[in-house]
Protein: protein-serine/threonine phosphatase
Organism: Stylosanthes scabra
Amino acid sequence: MMNLLSLCWKPFGHGGGDAVSAAGGREGKDGLLWFRDVGRYGSGEFSMAVVQANQVLEDQSQIESGPLGTFVGVYDGHGGPDASRYVCDNLFRNFQAASADSQGVVTPETIQTAFRRTEEGFTALVSDLWSTRPQVATTGTCCLVGVIFQQTLFVANLGDSRVVLGKKVGNTGGVAAIQLSTEHNANLEDIRQELKEMHPDDPQIVVLKHGVWRVKGIIQFCQNAY
């Protein structure tokens, strides 16, 4: 069986109260908080929590475990839940397919291929729905993925979310926070330069607005950089 554990957070499908999941650990709802305490996956244990900030939860997250190792995804949606839900439903499937093409070996290229196929799929969906649900075109999502494969951690980021590793500091009982990814945020000079190089004919690709650099003067993060 490919998935020992499959979880895609869609809290509005869950009832209230606490329950014990099939993967172990208590899960439940407390106000705007949905949580799962320590559960099991292929390489150890995990816990997850989602705090709702909007009337409709725009964010999604998932953990998958099986022969390809452990796959964790966090999708920070904006403008609505359509893009993040699509990514949650399709990114891992595309990752499985890309890994199968490479004889079951996980590489940076297989993860990048999964990202690209998912983006192409969502773009095609937007085109198909344009006449009936044009608002889907205004939604988007950041995409943060970690894959543990044969004792190697791969990290992929699209947008302005961040992966932070907590590492025990000797026998002190303390924990050090180690940043593992860099955001695609227009406030970073390298990202502004990258955007200008990608769009040399658009003088408004990055605009300083109220002291904050924004893509086209609208959003801070860039989703078309890998």
